[in-house]
Fold this protein.
Amino acid sequence: MKIEEQFKYSQLGDSYWWLAGKYLLITKLLKKVLDKQYKKGRKSLKILDIGCGPGNLSNNLSNIGEVFGIDVSLPTLKLCQKKYSNLINGKADELPIREGSFDIVILLDVLEHIADDAKVMKETFRILKPGGIVLITAPACKILWGSHDEIYQHYRRYSLDEIKKVVRRAGFTIKKLIAFEAIFFIPLLLFRKIKNVLNYSKRDDFIKIPNWLNSILTVIVLLEGRISYNINNPLGVSIICIAKKE
């Protein structure tokens, strides 16, 4: 992702409904998994945010454990300095990290940016401790492919089966795999078709909306994600996968 897009993510990350809602959701789901795994109380956990970008997850993850961020872009890491104190410069598919170093790895909308996503997952498996957890999000459904994907340099959008294969082949046991944001599937599909008709194909999907609507949509993302988690929703705009290194 270019530094211009990273800067935009940095500005939008704390408040824009599409991002803020997702961050709240995955943090709550991660805590739910960890509460189940560490029934007698959590130990001090080490967390790696791969492809940390501008560090938008910092406030959410810092309440769970000690957070480290890694990104291939030095300018991007500079954006992240005020949010993460532990920063590493490196590639997601060639992690400069010792085997078995982390309890949790976050891959938030990262796999779609990497040509060899299988290698990223194998590297993630390597650096996790036995019993370690990886949480992955990725864009879903090829039919939703649009200019937003191209601007943010995506290689692909995933189906649930495609995520399942790349995660399992790396050695992980999948604990939860769902599509979410299903309520936005038809609106997003129509929005991207309209953008093409109106020749707005060179613009991303982040549009300014009133604060009251932004707040409502943030809550909708959170609630819809919780419902999808409980019913194993098969269709959506995005995918969440939680897997374990047994």
Q: What stands out?
A: Residues 3-244 form a domain with the Rossmann fold fold (CATH 3.40.50.150). Strands lie at 46-50, 66-71, 86-89, 102-108, 128-139, 173-180, 238-244. The mean pLDDT is 87.
